[in-house]
Automatic annotation (TrEMBL):
Residues that bind FAD: 210, 237-238, 251-255, 268-275, 289
This protein's name: Electron transfer flavoprotein subunit alpha/FixB family protein
GO MF: electron transfer activity; flavin adenine dinucleotide binding
Residue ranges constituting the Electron transfer flavoprotein alpha/beta-subunit N-terminal domain according to the UniProt record: 4-188
Free-text comment on the cofactor: Binds 1 FAD per dimer.
Keyword entries, A-Z: Electron transport, FAD, Flavoprotein, Transport
Position of the signal peptide: none
Cofactor(s), by name: FAD
């Protein structure tokens, strides 16, 4: 019962970053419990060589099952069957919409406790204790489990860390598809609009909020990011993503991505706590806002009170002049 089961999502021959973080975290926790981390992959024609690479992140065994990729039902069926075998007490997921869906479904299937938006997990008295921020991330709630436990992380909460382990053993597993898992089919699968926005890897981020006024206002942020060149990108708040001004792939905050660039330039962002938790680890924070009382000035290294439509173009020209 010291082993931990972890789901690994893959697409076009590569594992999802959050899944790799979950595998590494499950490996660490299982090691402290005296067990092993075992991964589950579900898809059509998954190569054994690909599945075995999860050993580099700490999985000692990979269960491989045939089924449609990207649907929760088949994964719940497979993981439920493995739990029924009695070898597992915990399952770990790396977050994301599919992770939430599978984790919640699996909790109902095996009658387990479930904790979502987890940011840290510890071993306490031989059991897992999951921590999640509550009350606008102002406090931490700790969950422990009377029996089985499902832990679903906040996006990017678990570090992707190679453990130096050898290739994992790969075992084909069969399962009986439940009635409910047969009620949905994948029609098409592809990258969402804006998926090419790599805000997590950028060293400079120009983030836009409602202060930009409209979707077209993001052109100012894009011009500035382009002037910086190199590893600069444009990010956005949840409010403007919800308004359809910018893609979700660029969203920062509690329900988006967590970033830590060298420079974070916030343009027209108020600084709500939900946004702060996603960018507060930035090395340098510069905020531009016409509201001198905007909360973001409380945790910025440099604050500029003024009109974005005047400041951003001048800043872009200054950066261009500086770079020659």
């Amino acid at each position: 019962m010291s082993n931990i089961l972890v789901y690994a999502l893959h697409h076009e021959g590569a594992f999802n970053k959050n899944s790799l973080g979950a595998v590494a975290e499950a490996s660490r926790l299982a090691g402290e419990l005296g067990g092993e981390a075992h991964a589950v992959v579900v898809g059509a024609g998954i190569a054994d060589d690909l599945a075995a690479t999860l050993g580099s992140y700490g999985a000692t065994k990979v269960y491989k099952a045939d089924g449609p990729e990207g649907l929760s039902g088949p994964v719940i069926d497979v993981m439920g069957k493995l739990f029924d075998g009695g070898d597992y007490q915990y399952a770990v997921f790396g977050g994301g919409l599919l992770g939430f869906e599978i984790g919640a479904g699996l909790a109902a299937r095996i009658d387990a406790g479930v904790t979502m938006e987890v940011t840290a997990v510890n071993v306490v008295d031989g059991q897992l204790a999951a921590e999640r921020p509550i009350l606008g991330d102002s406090s931490i709630s700790t969950s422990r489990y009377k029996g089985k436990g499902i832990i679903i992380a906040r996006l990017n909460a678990f570090e992707v860390k190679e453990t130096g382990g050898s290739a994992a053993s790969v075992e084909q597993v069969s399962y009986e598809a439940s009635t409910q898992s047969q009620q949905a089919n994948i029609v098409t699968r592809g990258e969402q609009r804006g998926a090419d926005v790599d805000i997590e890897g950028a060293s400079i981020l120009v983030a836009g909020g409602r202060g930009l006024g409209k979707a077209e206002g993001f052109q100012l942020a894009e011009d500035l990011a382009k002037a910086f060149g190199g590893n600069a990108a444009v990010a956005a708040t949840r409010a403007v993503v919800d308004a359809g001004w910018y893609p979700y792939a660029a969203q920062i905050g509690q329900t988006g991505k967590t970033v830590a660039p060298k420079l974070y330039l916030a343009a027209g962002i108020s600084g709500a706590i939900q946004h702060k938790v996603g960018m507060q680890s930035s090395e340098n924070i510069v905020a531009i806002n016409k509201d001198a009382n905007a909360p973001i000035f409380e945790f910025s290294d440099l604050g500029i009170v003024g009109d974005l439509n005047k400041i951003l173009p001048k800043l872009t020209e200054a950066v261009k002049a500086r770079k020659g």
